[in-house]
Design a protein that fits this description.
alpha/beta, six-stranded mixed sheet, 26 helices, 21 strands, globular
Length: 717
């Protein structure tokens, strides 16, 4: 016998009335049967694809994409089971409930069992309000726990929808769900997306959408769900057209949200921090000199990379006689200029070397009047040391790290490339260890690497060409042997004499290759969370990866550690974005009133016009002030009283003693996260001015239940 999908506690016994849930039980039984069939069919199809004979070219790519698609859907169906279902809605003109899920699901007869949450038809489930019911009579949302429904609540939008609904106190039920215990990973909130959030999630992808909101307004929820929604709804953003890049502020943040996108059925979004975009970012430290950090935050200094590269693209101004094994060829200054103009616009410097060399060789071959074949001439020219040396001097291979390092160690080079810098600023930017990379260097390293390209590309291309040539020679030898053994000169063997078939026998997939940089782009859309922290220089790293300028920019001006006095449109227009629309989230769903009452004066003191959101719930737990000596006892008492949930100590530094369900973070690393209990240690020591106030405000507003502020005895009176 099929067990019930409902596991309601005793205090909700009225909701277990069969008159209220029998329809759901029947529908869940149909979902369970279809899920079982779908998983079996998907497993069989995946097994068939994996066992299929090897393919090449486009066929191999199509097969890999199909395997990836089947795997992704199989993982989601296997992971969730019945809790794929978020709830159902009933329209005013049709009493049949429409069930909404993480994915669409259809049974073998073609009956729609689940409507994908991202489809336009599912929008009323999230967007309907009493002011705008969007054609709904009622809506039911489920709360799942360990694969069964632990609670549900109904919302009624018309008088006709009042019949047979047991949970009409929808707001209190929703608010109660906001106070549930946190875990090390962001909890599933898809079924509780609110109308203001859903409107932002479903906004179009053209141009730049700014999602501006204070702590607890669900900015991160919106950013993640919008990523999944756009990939589903906008064919222009599909993986074959670039896909979506999601940029978060820190490693702890990315770990916290790691489960969200897979839980939405979307595994194709690339996620990273800004420092992940550059290899040197893994070990880069913070810039210790604030003035140097300010100078490097400018987009203008990033633009100095272009003249820095052009400095190494100097056309030889003198002609030369080039000797081959058979002739002497005059190479004029005009010939050099023609060769140096050969690269196509936008070709990276190192990649362009081959184009310049090929053009140079073509010019020399066209001028040669000997009887040597073009191929023999090419080999001879490669052995001409004077020609190769002159070419390398005019267009050398350059490494990005060397180029940027020279800017910080050769003052004359920096002055030439960034003439707007004052001599004092040039001196200040110089350092003893050019390669001692800081986070502030990363935008310049990124710009240099994109402008230069891979310094090894020419060597790899030559190795690849040599491998292909060797393969062709070997295949030709085998084919000639087969043809020679074919006495009558008829039959299938004679087909091997065709050039097309010979070429098709070359398996270039076996040739040397390089794994693509998955973060190099271009991307069709980029989502940036905590975007208020990005400098103008850092924005260039993202703009270079998204030519369409299609962005979702998520942030809060009041949480900018280094100040954010201008408007979002002014800031983003300056860095190079356009078609900017700002959507504001003003309701604080996370932080209790008690905590916000303590935090609001902190940020208002330095930013009177800060967008401080309005909390919609109380925890009835006052903010506690005490001594830092009470940290251990505070945590012990809380852990003993709470079997679930996560606490975070902010500002303890090395003094923190590790224990289960308690984390220790700096204010900066806590950004974007949330915890049941937050304990601040000496918050006044976080700093002064805007940076200190922002750090205190951010740290305070991580709490979903309780805030405790502890200070060292005698440190602050």
């Amino acid at each position: 016998m099929h067990s019930s999908a409902f596991d309601l506690p005793e205090n909700l016994f009225r909701k277990a009335d069969p008159a209220l849930i029998a329809g759901d039980e029947a529908h869940f039984a149909a979902i369970a049967m279809t899920l079982e069939q779908s998983i079996a069919e998907l497993s069989e199809r995946l097994d068939t694809e994996l066992k299929a004979s090897a393919r090449r070219g486009q066929a191999a790519m199509d097969r890999d994409l199909e395997v990836h698609r089947l795997n992704a859907r199989l993982r989601v169906l296997s992971r969730f089971g019945l809790d794929l279902c978020l709830g159902h809605m009933v329209a005013t003109d049709d009493p049949t409930p429409v069930y909404v899920g993480r994915l669409g699901l259809t049974d073998s007869a073609g009956r729609r069992l689940l409507l994908d949450w991202r489809s336009p038809a599912a929008e009323p489930f999230f967007g309907a309000t009493h002011a705008n019911p969007m054609g709904l009579a009622s809506r039911r949302r489920y709360r799942w726990k360990r694969g069964r429904i632990s609670d549900y609540w109904d919302e009624v939008f018309t008088p006709d929808g009042l019949a047979d609904h047991a949970a009409l106190d929808d707001q209190s039920a929703f608010i109660a769900s906001l106070g549930s215990s946190r875990s090390p990973r962001m909890r599933d909130v898809l079924s509780t997306i609110q109308a203001d959030q859903d409107a932002v999630i479903r906004a179009g992808s053209r141009g730049t959408l700014v999602v501006d909101g204070g702590p607890g307004t669900g900015k991160t929820v919106v950013a993640l769900h919008r990523s999944a929604y756009l990939l589903y709804s906008d064919p222009r953003l599909g993986h074959r057209r670039g896909g979506v890049l999601f940029v978060g502020p820190s490693g702890p943040y990315l770990a916290y949200v790691a489960d969200v996108l897979p839980s939405l059925g979307e595994e194709g979004v690339q996620t990273c921090m800004l420092r992940d975009l550059v290899a040197e970012g893994a070990s880069a430290t913070l810039e210790t000199d604030p003035e140097v950090a300010r100078l490097k935050s400018s987009a203008g200094l990033v633009h100095a990379i272009e003249p820095a590269v052009r400095f190494y693209e100097e056309t030889p101004t003198e002609g030369m006689t080039v000797q081959t094994h058979w002739s002497e060829i005059w190479l004029s200054p005009e010939d050099w200029a023609e060769a140096f103009d050969a690269p196509e616009p936008g070709t990276p410097h190192n990649d362009a070397r081959d184009q310049v060399w090929e053009k140079l060789v073509a010019i020399l071959v066209s001028k040669d009047d000997s009887e040597a074949s073009p191929e023999m001439l090419r080999k001879s020219l490669l052995q001409n040391r004077e020609l190769v040396t002159t070419f390398n001097r005019g267009w050398p291979v350059i490494d990005a790290a060397d180029l940027v390092g020279d800017l910080w160690s050769v003052p004359a080079y920096l002055r030439r490339c960034a003439p707007s810098l004052h001599p004092d600023e040039v001196r200040r930017l110089q350092r003893a260890e050019p390669a001692a990379w800081t986070v502030s260097d990363l935008p310049l390293l990124d710009a240099a690497r994109r402008r230069l390209g891979d310094p090894e590309v020419s060597r790899r291309k030559r190795r690849h060409d040599a491998s292909v040539a060797a393969e062709e020679e070997y295949r030709s030898h085998v084919i000639e042997s087969l043809l020679a053994a074919d006495d009558d000169g008829e039959g299938a063997v004679t087909m091997l004499s065709g050039d097309d078939l010979r070429d098709s026998l070359i398996d270039e997939s076996t040739m040397p290759s390089v794994d693509p940089d998955l973060l190099a782009g271009p991307f069709a859309h980029i989502v940036v969370d905590e975007a208020q922290e990005l400098t103008d220089a850092e924005w260039q790293m993202l703009l270079s990866r998204c030519p369409s300028r299609s962005f979702t920019v998520v942030g809060d001006r009041a949480q900018a550690r280094h100040g954010f006095t201008e408007s979002w449109p002014d800031r983003l227009t300056r860095v190079g974005l356009d078609r900017i629309t700002v959507s504001s989230l003003t309701i604080n769903y996370r932080t209790p009133e008690e905590v916000m009452a303590e935090a609001e004066p902190v940020i208002r003191a330095v930013l009177p016009d800060a967008n401080v959101p309005t909390s919609i719930r109380r925890s009835d737990i006052p903010v506690v002030h005490g001594s830092a000596a009470d940290l251990d006892s505070t945590l012990d008492v809380w852990l003993a009283a709470h079997g679930e949930g996560i606490a975070c100590v902010i500002g303890a530094g090395q003094a923190f003693r590790a224990r289960p369900r308690v984390r220790s973070l700096t204010p900066e690393l806590s950004k974007g996260l949330e915890f049941d209990l937050v304990v601040l240690i000496d918050p006044e020591a976080f700093g002064t001015g805007i940076e200190g106030a922002v750090d205190r405000y951010v740290a305070m507003t991580r709490a979903t239940q309780q805030l405790v502020i502890l200070t060292s005895d005698g440190l602050f009176d």
